[in-house]
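## retry 2 of 3
previous attempt timed out at serialization; input unchanged, resubmitting
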Amino acid sequence: IEYADGNIAPYFCVKKEATTMSENSADLNRVCWASRRGMLELDLVLMPFARERYPHLSAVDQAAYRRLLESEDTDMFAWFLQKSVPEDAGLADIVIKVLDFARTRAL
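## retry succeeded, writing output
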């Protein structure tokens, strides 16, 4: 990469930026794929959240969302219907964020 002042970025900087971008893209693709569930109701909530909000979450919330995706569909369905609450506080927090997103998106 050549800067406007004529300096050239060291190779290791360019490679690291490209690697980070491709790693982020691969992570997003994995998360979007995992957000496709066996229940249409979950797909309609999780897939838009993964596409539109996941990239903007903090690292802690991204990790919580990935943990959420490891949960059983029946558990997630109950959480999103607010019939029960996850015991894990991190999961409970991300469930609230997903629900808030789904509510505001529906308006």
